[in-house]
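Notes from the pairing session

We agreed to fold both candidates in a single pass and log them together. This is the raw record for the first candidate, unedited. Please don't reformat it; downstream parsing expects exactly this layout.

Candidate A
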Amino acid sequence: MNIDPKIFKSYDIRGIYPTQINEENIGQIVKAIYKFFYESIGKSQPTILLAYDMRISGPALFEIAKKTLVEMGADVIDAGQLSTPSFYFAVFHYQYDCGIQITASHNPKEWNGLKFVKSTPKGLIKIGKPTGMDEVQKLAQQEIVFTPTQKGKVTAKTGILEDEVKTTLDLLGNPEVKKFKIVADPGNAMGAQYIEALFEKVPADLIKMNFELDGNFPAHEPNPLKFETLRDLQKRVIDEKADLGIATDGDGDRLYFIDEKGQIVPATSITSIVARELLKKYPGELIYFDIRDILGPQKIVEEYGGKSEIVRVGHAYITEAMNKTGGIFAGESSGHMFFRTNGNSESNMPIILIILQVLTEEKKTLSEVVEMLRRSYESGELNFEVSNSKEILDALKEKYKDGKFWDLDGVSVSYDNPVWRFNVRTSNTEPLLRLNVESYDKDLTAQKFNELKNFIQSIAKK
């Protein structure tokens, strides 16, 4: 069977339905994943959790995937419709051997795909380019002959969200939090599940926007990194005189906050708040953040006696780094937040609860807490659609060769006097070049951002 190789991404499988992923080829893809699991886990009948999100094509692909796994002799745990953080929680918490989540994350409605993981006592292994994706791609292009040693079976799994809420509350010591007015917009997507489940146990005046699961995404694209999708939420927070707003993406693994003034809170500010709270309880722990914006979180971690590690962009790479070096928490600039207690994968319930706990204990607004912990100024990410990414990256290295160069992910250059830095990298999921600039001075950040933007535009080719 000819399967488009472009669907095998750096850290998941993702393509347009039904041209790239469909009912005809999903079985072959799942066979390849299961054979990879079977051979790498070394068990005669691995347990494999299977779930799907709210996309229109999800139920049909899910049923074919389930049927395929049973035919191959798998012990299938049917989790039904689930967010990706809850999927990670279930695989790790119940110690299943592996899992497949049918999802296309934050992509538009025409897309679908698969995220898949293995479980170890230390944490989850997300399958991506460094952890087996190339092998899965090769298997998917072959005729797979597989003789199961045992008969496959399906067991329905319920109560996952209830267990996830209880585990979160226990993890944070069942904190008493004030009853805040909160507006939440999961964009008709999977974050609605765990937001609702959490606030059934945590007091809040919860104002719901777009909570009905609908893979057509009638309100807006489920991608809070596109800030235009947050405008209605920002307005509603102001209109309702709410304490804060919450937004999540398509599969619920990205989380963004809106403060009481209707302003978008940078994900790095949330990382700083959470890192501070964790380091108060667990001194000296290791905190991770990605290469894009590091100055603010780094300062906070230093001030509170922690250690930090910089990793390349991408949820699979961050989980891999946490598995290797054992840190407690990671925050990514795109709103992914990771906990050791969730198998080193995304977990948003504790993030929400920590923010509410801080606001309760400090008797401050979210904007006041963010400003109190501000240590740097960020440009925000600017995307360029270009056909000559390598030429631009090489030109940047030459133009800024007097700075400190780092090629962990794209081109990063930093300066010490005055302190400022930038990162330019290609997207792992889209044909884009992404620019981020930061410094300790607001005007300097704006100046260098415009300088870099103009330079890239001067040599960019469509």
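Candidate B (folded immediately after A)
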Amino acid sequence: MFEFEIHATSGAARAGSWSLPHGVVETPCFMPVGTQGTVRALSPKDLEAVGATLVLANTYHLHLRPGEDTVARLGGLHRFMGWRGPLLTDSGGFQVFSLAGLRRVTEEGVEFHSHIDGSARFLTPERVVEIQWALGPDVAMALDHVVAGEASREQAADALARTARWLERASARFAELVPDAPARQVLVPIIQGGIYPDLRRTALDGILSSGDWRGIAVGGLSVGEPKAATHAVLDDLVPVLPAKLPRYLMGVGFPEDVVAAISRGMDLGDCVAPTRMGRNGTAFTDDGPVNMRNARYREDDAPLDRSCDCETCTGFPRGYLRHLFAVEELLGLRLLSLHNVRYLIRLAARARAAILDRTFEGWSRAWLARYTSRERA
């Protein structure tokens, strides 16, 4: 259990498979985000239909509502949300970071006020492990200290060091829980260090010397820094990442960013972008994003994306989708969310096929040229 196997490489890009308690995840893989135990507007059957294999849920939100004890009493997170496949829970570090004035980071943990009712809460590395153990996902993330993309070197170094100390505590608490069910869950550490490559390498060295891990994540990117800085960090870090570990780039999920991450050796990614953009009327296509609120689609009887096999593209014309948004019908939100999630899952699968064929470099160049060549509608 938890073994990762690489089947092929093409440059830095990898095609692999990760064995988890609730199924095998083929990589590269895009994870739909089910923050509060649901991917917005989509049911578990929808997720199965679009080919999702690994779904993300969030520790912070589920801890606040309905509470991990409630989830545990109702059979664990898989049964609670009706999802039979693998699950990953984020530690909540990013959500706490986004609270800004509502939180205070100390050496012991993070003190914050609930965005729901203002109640005072305190999360420690140990408590985050316990919450995730109660929730019962296949993959649990260690608590990390996230800083903004424009953070100074000193701030990034301080957060990195604290994340390392928190990891030691989280790992110790996890080791106390695991003997009761060793094949139930795996704990994954997160590399911090801001936009400073040498700090990222320092973080990696510390992680690798602190335990025998089954996966590794790169966090603290896509938090306000330029994309060029993100790419520079990955270009420097990936060559020294252990090949045997699945690599998770956290919070990255626009199409061009997914392809860029895969080309730099990342295996897993997640983002709320597909459902958020879908609810706002924007659809992902190989020709770039399409705004379905545009009046030009009022009498368009073509499918949203002729190459897509999702329910939206095989069942409804663009004119109808535009109508749904014009009259503010909820079905429009579901159909575009469904398509966007399917698009990113297909994109990762297409990248995997190109890696297996050793044609990824040419495929990715051609995809990007098409994606960025046409006028946005």
